[in-house]
Amino acid sequence: MVSDSPPYILHGTGKLGPLCSDLRIGLVSTLRDVEDQFLQWLEWFRIIGFAHLFLYFDDPACDEAAIAAARSTYSEDFVSFALNTPELRKEWMSLKTWPKFSPFTDDRMCRQLLNIAHALRRAQAAPAESVESVDWMFHLDHDELFLPPPQGLQAHFKHLEAGNCRLCLYQNFEAAPRDHTTMPFVDVNLFKIPSGRVSKTPLGAAGMNFWAQRTKARNYFLYYDNGKSAVRIDKTYKTHRGGKDIAPTSVHLLYPPDDLEELITGKHGWTTFPEHELSDMNLTWMSSCHDEIVVGAKVLHYPATHFDRLWHKYNHLGNFPAVRFGGELVVPDSFHLQARDEYLKHQDKTVQQQKLKELLEHAAFLRSEEEIQSQLETGSVVVIDTVRDSLQRGCWTAPRLLRPSLHSLLQRRPSKAEMERMQKMKRFPVEKLSCPEGLLKNSDPGLDLVLQELESKGWAACNLGLHPKILQRALLEAQQLKPRMAKGSTVIENEILDPSLPNADRGDRILFMQEQGLSGAAAAKGPAPTLTMLESALTDFGMQLDLRLQRSSLRLRITERCDGMLACYEAGGAYSAHIDNADGDGRVDGRVLTMVLYLNVNWDRSAGGELAIFEANDGDLGDPNVKGSWHVVYPEAGTLVLLRADRVLHEVRSAYEERFALSMWFCGQHVEYGGS
Ligand SMILES: O=C(O)CCC(=O)C(=O)O
Ligand SMILES: [Fe+2]
Fold this sequence. Notes:
Elements: E1 9-11, E2 25-31, H1 38-47, E3 52-57, H2 64-73, E4 79-83, H3 86-92, H4 98-101, H5 108-125, E5 136-139, E6 144-147, H6 153-162, E7 167-170, E8 172-175, H7 184-187, E9 190-192, H8 202-212, E10 228-232, H9 237-240, H10 260-265, E11 269-271, H11 275-278, E12 287-288, H12 292-295, E13 298-301, H13 307-317, E14 323-324, E15 329-330, H14 335-345, H15 349-363, H16 369-378, E16 381-383, H17 386-393, H18 406-411, H19 416-423, E17 427-429, H20 443-456, E18 459-463, H21 468-480, E19 486-487, E20 491-492, E21 495-496, E22 508-512, H22 529-551, E23 556-561, E24 565-569, E25 575-578, E26 591-598, E27 611-618, E28 627-633, E29 639-644, E30 650-652, E31 659-670
Parallel strand pairs: 2-3, 2-5, 3-4, 7-11, 8-13, 11-12, 17-28
Antiparallel strand pairs: 1-4, 5-10, 6-13, 7-10, 8-9, 9-16, 14-15, 18-29, 19-22, 20-21, 22-24, 23-31, 24-31, 25-30, 26-29, 26-31, 27-28, 27-30
Helix pairs in contact: 8-16, 13-15, 14-15, 20-22, 21-22
The structure holds 2-oxoglutaric acid and fe (ii) ion (FE2).
């Protein structure tokens, strides 16, 4: 029972109650003119395990039927309906943010902010046994869903709490419908992924551009792209914090302004946005988190899925100003303003509807199978079926995990004893390289061949087909760069490895091409033009392999290239057996592909320096009984080795002469990972 409930709050009277355990997750939302998807929206939050929904009806008269339907379906434990009445508005006046917001209560966003603060106060003040006593609170609109990671809602929040997280900002994905629908939660399964997660490859750029050229303002997302958040409710607030309100000033970030200092020093603010985006967002105080159980969570936004809804929205908003809160917030040139202007241009309802329909179809929809397939391949769009599947089955239906967990990745680093046993396994010199005419001249059939080998064995060795003079020049340039090289180190989970461990045992000196200004068009006039050209050839191969990898059984997408690396092993140098990316690289899309091009003209095979690649033929790497053999490639000029950076064990044997190689790594992920 809810004790002392004020008169402007109605409660559920139906049977369906919350399904939560342990941690209680709440949601506050300000609603108006909710549509037929409202019950599905509520049901989604119930089946994924939310504890209580604090619903605020902005114009209760226009939603009477929806409120009645929801009340009779859901129990008072699960929902409460606060109505915008004089009593509620009076309560707003006691909120901490009232003086700031009182001039702007005509603005819907302002009323949302006051309602959020009000709900947060209810949750903080509620006695422990009350249904309103939630541990975390989200703010979401009725066209937004929170999608937990495959591990589930409870596991996600337990992980946040274990890490002392008090505020989590989630990236949002935007619906890309195939057609007009009033049931987007079951009908839409394609979503644009956040721009920062689109591959930094030509294919990814084509995807971004495909969307940008569809609107006047050249936006990728039609609406907001700065995410939504959940905040932890401080139960000690009454005793320890003098009854302070949380009262946030942004509907996206629910942090209490007074607590910012503490959030910063305690590193309590987490986000799924990648680190490199935080400065543009003025959020450098947040910690970018890449644990799967955090990054797997997202907000799904369904803002424009039917022309009639769009018409309703702009009919209600009318000629809204692009400047809000007395100039503090400016709505940038966007689809939102384009839709407003299109609406205002016409008087007749049918014409307005027709125009908005055309606008929507042009800007937001993927209308043909070809369009869908091509955007899936650029990686701008992913398939997320979990919502539809869960709603149809009536229970949370987690998507399958698409990649091994970090734990099983770590398991693949064989122990010292296993390594000793493996070292005794057979070694076969690789005499014949694939693509005998050279990859440069025959890149299409050559890369097809390379891909077959990556699929079947995890590695390939081929001949680049470079003129000996070019190789000679590349070697000379590499030798001249030696003074700029530094000792190589091994980084595991973002920490330099203890050099006494076997994996840290590497005898190379390295330099990174871009870091040294040796990469890109301008570098063609620099001190190492041949190496610059070769680095760009390797990058091109990676980009050409991207689509092939996506379509292969490996289902990998290249998302980014790393900085090319020039390495030199001095006489006696070696690099003991290792996997390049054995721990996920501490990022969402760690390295998946390694390329090594050797530069050693007239290499004397008796000087050693072979690259030995382990190929398991019975069991998997990391299994105590794994059996297999080593395949040995000589570091001869023009030989290119490709291997899966995240699973192939390889080693550089001692070289008795100076040995040079140019390496390139590519990051990537499973093609469906963005959707998980
Ligand atoms: O130079 C080679 O043959 C391979 C080098 C290597 O394995 C590495 O740098 O990770
Ligand atoms: Fe390596």
